[in-house]
Write a structure and sequence with these properties.
Strands 1, 2, 3, 4, 5 and 6 form a six-stranded antiparallel beta sheet that branches. The chain has a five-stranded mixed beta sheet with strand order 15-19-18-17-16, with no helix packed on it. Strands 7-8-9-10 form a four-stranded antiparallel beta sheet, with no helix packed on it. The chain has 346 residues and is mainly beta. The radius of gyration is 19 Å and the shape is globular. The protein has one domain (44-323): Tachylectin-2, Chain A (5 Propeller). The protein has strands spanning 44-49, 60-69, 72-80, 90-98, 103-107, 111-112, 127-132, 135-142, 146-152, 160-161, 186-189, 195-199, 205-209, 223-224, 227-228, 235-244, 247-254, 259-265, 272-279, 291-295, 298-305, 318-323. It has no helices and 22 strands.
């Protein structure tokens, strides 16, 4: 999420999840036979063909988090309530999917802020879903009440609050005083099958999750990520962690308006070496929130901007996707935000 909160989304549409010869303007879901079993008449509410960035244009979306499962790329976002908003109003989350980066579909709403009794009605802030042991765990943040977790049997849900209370709260985010510091969770499972939860605004904290994924190792406790090196802008929020070739890449938003920067380490716990800004201020949005993921041999930078031409902005944001590349030393190349987006894949 962001120094207070979140983002936007929209595009135009067609059809869907297989290779079809003709395009149909999508007003409603297509109920014809599909090759992808995930696309069924009962759980898919919208299908379209992306025409560039923003990827989603039928609604406003923010804070994307990606998951690859069963050869499908799922993207979970918050939904900014409407265009032209003057503040963050995010009542629910969305689940989108694709198998070719061209044809997308949207599932029924999987979760709303009020599904957490301890949450806040208009604060469905940044989140991330991960699979473990056949279950899907969705770590969500709310404005001032902390980070919770919901669980489901399928990536698209439906999800239910696993605990009835927040997993981590403001008192766990030590060293800072502002009320929105316990937000923006990212979750990662390392090669030793250890799950980690990171989060934070103003600093980045982390815990070791237990095998059940809904509690953490209290003996290990809550610790703060250390980032060494001179940073052009202070750490703001939006941590995202992934691994490549034995190195851990921690990306995050810096400054405000937000840019995306990153740091690397040979251990999840760090310390991390700061590498610099890789993505400048997203068009027409004070915030940004990234998801970095490999899918079918390609790396993608998934983010939001305020680019929908009808009432898009800092509080009415839009999902975008651009390619991510590495140099010979394994560092990120600067990311070029485009209107074209990425090429279709098979």
């Amino acid at each position: 999420m962001n120094t207070n909160p979140r983002r936007i989304i929209s595009l135009s549409f067609l059809m869907v999840a297989t290779l079809m010869a003709s395009a149909v303007t999508p007003k409603k879901k297509n109920t014809s036979a599909q090759k992808n079993d995930s696309i069924t008449s009962e759980n898919v509410i919208y299908q379209w063909e992306a025409k560039g960035n923003p990827i989603v244009t039928h609604k406003y979306t923010c804070d994307p988090a990606a998951l690859v499962y069963n050869d499908t790329l799922f993207i979970f976002t918050g939904e900014d309530a409407k265009g032209g908003q003057k503040w963050y109003n995010i009542e629910k989350w969305c689940c989108f999917a694709t198998t070719d980066m061209k044809h997308f579909w949207e599932y029924k709403m999987p979760l709303r802020a009020t599904d957490f009794a301890w949450g806040e009605t208009n604060a469905a802030w940044a989140s991330q879903v991960i699979e473990r042991n056949g279950k899907f765990y969705w770590y969500n943040s709310s404005q001032t009440t902390g980070i919770g977790v919901a669980v489901a049997d399928r990536p698209e849900g439906p999800y239910k609050d696993a605990l009835g209370h927040a997993l981590v709260k403001n008192e766990d985010s030590f060293g800072k005083k502002h009320s929105w510091r316990t937000i923006d969770p990212t979750v990662f499972i390392d090669d030793n099958d250890q799950a980690w939860l990171l989060w934070g605004n103003g600093a980045c904290w982390y815990v070791k999750l237990n095998e059940d994924m809904v509690s953490y190792d209290e003996d290990y406790g809550v610790k703060e990520i250390k980032i060494n090196g001179e940073m052009e802008f202070p750490f703001t929020e939006a941590p995202w962690l992934h691994e490549k070739d034995g190195r851990y890449y921690l990306s995050f938003a810096v400054g405000f308006p937000e840019r995306i920067a990153y740091a690397v380490s040979d251990k999840v716990e760090g310390p991390y070496e700061y590498k610099g800004v890789i993505n400048e201020i997203a068009g027409n949005s004070n915030t940004n929130h990234q998801s970095i993921i490999e899918y079918k041999g390609n790396w993608y930078f998934i983010y939001h901007n305020g680019g929908i031409q009808t009432d898009g902005g800092s509080f009415s944001r839009s999902l975008c996707i651009d390619k991510l590349e590495f140099d010979k030393k394994g560092n990120y190349k600067p990311i070029q935000m485009t209107t074209k987006s990425v090429d279709p894949i098979k």
